[in-house]
Amino acid sequence: MTNSAFALTSDKLIRTALKRKLKEIHRKNRQTRIIEEFGVTHGAARVDIAVVNGHIHGFELKSDVDTLSRLPGQMLAYNSVFDRVTLVVGKHHLYEAFKLIPEWWGVVVAKATNATTVTLLTIREPDENPTRNSISIASLLWRREAIDILEKRNQADGIRSKPRRLIYERLTKVLDQDTLRAEVRNRLFSREDWRSV
Predict the structure, then answer these.
(1) Which helix (H) or strand (E) holds 56?
(2) Considering only CA atoms, which of 115, 123, 49 is closest in space to residue 91?
(3) What is the CATH number of the domain that holds 22?
(4) Is the domain of 114 the same as that of 147?
């Protein structure tokens, strides 16, 4: 018999509960995609779950048995691309996590109710990210997608065989950030080989 006061959350328990909650929230919206292990900065960082619809919302999970040692580096990557970010954290790390993350990040505490389930309690809703970086947003695109966007605007001449960084830079010169974000969301939503939930 497990006493819930001593039960610890795990990544698997939190992930299962969060996926269930997100599916329920977005079940009527056909323009929503829920993606696990969403890579940013060309895979240098991966957010645990991303929700792509009118925004790209990243959810980072830190269970009671995890550490927060990687969080500062992950924050830099996530802050450059996501419209909103929510940290889903075991209560063991809640106080320390609050000291680390920006005020615009959302916070959900995961509390083990027993050895097999957790409850999720929203402590703070996320605000809009004020620190997005256009190059980082463009880098969410695959090379072919980026070139296709440029071709549709007759802006791909001289760039097709260039390194990705130069292609992304061209995109940021051709598109304002709001238009770029919309293009990226559309491409992410329409990809065929995501690990969607």
Answers:
(1) strand 56-62
(2) 123
(3) 3.40.1350.60
(4) no
Give Dmax over CA atoms of the chain in angstroms.
67
Same domain? 32 vs 86? yes
Residue recorded with tokens 């256009």: 134
What does the block give as tokens for 53? Answer: 């619809």
Q: Round to whole Å and give the CA distance between 5 and 150.
A: 56
Q: What is the DSSP letter of 29?
A: -
Residues 98 and 146 in one domain: no
Residue 194 has pLDDT above 70, yes or no: no
Q: Which of 142, 191, 196 is nearest to 33 (CA)?
A: 196
pLDDT tens-place string over residues 100-154: 999 999 999 999 888 788 999 999 999 999 999 999 999 999 999 999 999 999 9
As given in the structure block, the two tokens for residue 2 are 């497990």
Region 27-55: what's the mean pLDDT?
90
Q: Measuring CA to CA, which residue among 114, 115, 119, 113 is closest to residue 88? A: 119
